């Protein structure tokens, strides 16, 4: 049996095709949000950008959730205006918030504010909000998750931070493309989430995950910081 399917460090759920993957993830997210709404009256949702989760967000918005009781923010963000089409805020707004119109959205980047002030505001807001119901993560082919890029000069500081969010300069990191300045959820912030989902598509991502596990090096493969932490196991939903 494949060691990815027998790990005690995470749960890997394989889906036969994309539609089943989308439906299963959206339903799981809705169930988690509804549970928190029933228990506390509200829920908090942290979303990642990228093309992989966009169809899941579209499906989620159509499900039966009291969106007016849901606060939405981001796992990470490029140092771009929320109105920039390359920002994670723009993707979340287009794929999710335009359908779940009554949900409240808190972007990480505030137009006209320096990055240090945006990080301060994000941390203040996180500290005064309820713990996130769930965080949706992705993983790059370099093993990064959120904006925790291997090789970044700020990676060690972000990994050791005792605050939910940190600024990170990923200059020289190929996975950051042309957007090296980031605001990212830290492992400390991720640890506060009641549930953590990692959404993967394609065989190459499974190979990267296998390499990360074999390396056991969280600096080289930051995705390990989402796997090897206290609390509920990371749930990985994969389809080809």
TrEMBL record:
UniProt KW Transport keyword: no
Domain Glucosamine/galactosamine-6-phosphate isomerase per the UniProt entry, residue ranges: 18-223
Assigned EC number: 3.1.1.31
A Pfam family annotated for this UniProt entry: Glucosamine_iso
MF annotations from Gene Ontology: 6-phosphogluconolactonase activity
Alphabetical list of InterPro entries matching this protein: 6-phosphogluconolactonase_DevB, 6PGL, Glc/Gal-6P_isomerase, NagB/RpiA_transferase-like
Family: Belongs to the glucosamine/galactosamine-6-phosphate isomerase family. 6-phosphogluconolactonase subfamily.
Biological function: Hydrolysis of 6-phosphogluconolactone to 6-phosphogluconate.
Protein name, per record: 6-phosphogluconolactonase
Gene of this entry: pgl
């Amino acid at each position: 049996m494949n060691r990815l399917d027998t790990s005690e460090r995470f749960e890997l759920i394989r889906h036969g095709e994309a539609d089943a993957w989308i439906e299963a993830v959206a339903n799981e997210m809705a169930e988690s949000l509804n549970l928190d709404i029933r228990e506390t009256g509200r829920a908090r949702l942290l979303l990642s950008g990228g093309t992989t989760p966009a169809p899941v967000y579209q499906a989620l918005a159509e499900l039966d959730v009291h969106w007016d009781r849901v606060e939405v923010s981001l796992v990470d963000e490029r140092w771009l205006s929320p109105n920039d089409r390359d920002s994670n805020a723009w993707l979340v707004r287009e794929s999710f918030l335009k359908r779940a119109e009554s949900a409240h959205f808190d972007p990480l980047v505030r137009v006209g504010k320096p990055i240090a002030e945006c990080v301060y505001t994000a941390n203040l807001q996180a500290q005064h909000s309820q713990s996130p119901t769930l965080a949706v993560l992705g993983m790059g082919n370099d093993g990064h998750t959120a904006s925790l890029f291997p090789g970044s000069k700020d990676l060690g500081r972000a990994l050791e931070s005792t605050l939910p969010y940190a600024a990170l300069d990923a200059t020289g990191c190929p996975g950051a493309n042309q957007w090296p300045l980031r605001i990212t959820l830290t492992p400390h912030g991720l640890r506060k989430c009641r549930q953590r989902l990692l959404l993967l598509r394609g065989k190459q991502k499974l190979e990267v995950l296998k390499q990360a596990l074999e390396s056991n090096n969280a600096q080289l493969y930051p995705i390990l910081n989402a796997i090897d932490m206290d609390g509920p196991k990371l749930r990985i939903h994969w389809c080809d």
